[in-house]
Amino acid sequence: QGQSADEASAVRRKEKTEFEEDDKLSLLTWNIDGLDGEEQPQRARGLCSYILEYSPDVVLLQEMVQPYIRFMHKRLATNYTFIKGGEIGYFTTILLKKTRVTLLDSKILPFRYSQLTKFYYNSGERMRQFNAVIKRMSMAPDDFTVLFGGDTNLRDYEVATVEIPESICDLWEQLGEPEKCRYTWDTWANTNKEMRFKNRLRFDRVYLRRAVKDGVPRMEPHSMALVGLEKLKCGRYTSDHWGIYCTFSVD
Amino acid sequence: QGQSADEASAVRRKEKTEFEEDDKLSLLTWNIDGLDGEEQPQRARGLCSYILEYSPDVVLLQEMVQPYIRFMHKRLATNYTFIKGGEIGYFTTILLKKTRVTLLDSKILPFRYSQLTKFYYNSGERMRQFNAVIKRMSMAPDDFTVLFGGDTNLRDYEVATVEIPESICDLWEQLGEPEKCRYTWDTWANTNKEMRFKNRLRFDRVYLRRAVKDGVPRMEPHSMALVGLEKLKCGRYTSDHWGIYCTFSVD
DNA sequence: CCAGCTAGG
DNA sequence: CCCTAGCTG
Prior knowledge:
Two copies of one chain form a homodimer.
Chain A: E1 4-12, E2 24-31, H1 40-54, E3 58-64, H2 66-76, E4 80-84, E5 91-97, E6 101-110, H3 123-139, E7 146-151, H4 156-159, E8 168-170, H5 171-174, E9 185-186, E10 200-201, E11 204-209, E12 219-227, E13 243-250
Helix pairs in contact in A: 1-2
The structure holds a DNA duplex.
Pfam family, one (chains A, B): Exo_endo_phos
Domain Endonuclease/exonuclease/phosphatase (chains A, B): 28-241
GO cellular component, one term (chains A, B): PML body
């Protein structure tokens, strides 16, 4: 809620790293919990290390804050184009690997902020925003591939009430619902929030709307893994969320 | 939840009563609370009186039970065609006035019964069903007029999360949101349930999807009133819900 | 048969 | 910063 929806039109290029397969598009999405003030320098450093290690073509970050931006810019601005979704408080940020992706255009779409009537812990607001995302994805021209990734805070029973068109797929479902990367928020494993109660949820999701026009390169989900599972030296994890690193085959 | 969605294709005819204007289509929708065992004979008699008084062309009843059906059939079967949405427990029933409406075809569509995860008092299930209704209405051929009426149990904040196409309108909204017939379930005014807490909600709703094809008669919401506001001699109301009596102009 | 709050896992 | 059950107006 109150976050922004970010869009970027991208064209692929080449290069290779340890995780990267030249013919795949790679994406990392991560709620990096910039609002958590604990051990920020170490966690920002951890985040940069993960990004350099995985070297994703596209990075979608949520709950970004200015101190993180400054730190990351120093380490990554050579390799990545930064697209900030805001300036104050917390906001989203997209990074595009310069050697692999050409930014043609970008647009920030802030969500209308409406709490409805505090509909049960913002469930209504989440679903309204999710509906808007699904609608926007399905409306895209049929020669466009559309990717959505981020922390949705959606519960499965909320997603179940929304009619998702055939053209759009959930990456995790498409890959056979691997148990290993089901839960992206997990207070059993992640102790950043030191909660008395334990729970795990699939808050972070990636959606793909394939291009459907003949002759346009077709993308398919290829792999998916959670990122940030290791404790940093400071004793905390990079975020209270795990990141999702995924790859897509092209044609 | 667990109810049925009913459909009827209808063609108009003529006749006239006190409430009826010959050129209007009239409709009564009412959750008659057949599960409430108190004073059933009197309440069933009251229901029949209302129907005979208003003489609506189409009657949509929810929470109907077999004892009611038997009673009503004796009084109304001469004038109305009965379409039962089920046989056991409680179910919907449609009545069509024989002199005004010709039944061409009918189909009962039971909702898939899925509780999701008991999402806050079945909110998720309500919205899933509401989505299905809206989708089905919008998918109808453009020379069809589609009417939906019934007890939805929907809260305004639930409806607000659903994208309703331009082609579909809420009768009550279309008529300028008259305060007089806003709340169809009202424990301030209706004492059938003798609740300690007081509340009023717009549970019962009527939706219209106009025919859009040229040359096809166009229906427009014309009037709306609540029904069943009078206490019966037994001291109870006909139902814990008010009914909605409404008329539509044609062309 | 509502909605807001609280306690406890 | 989770979810559920139970209480209360």
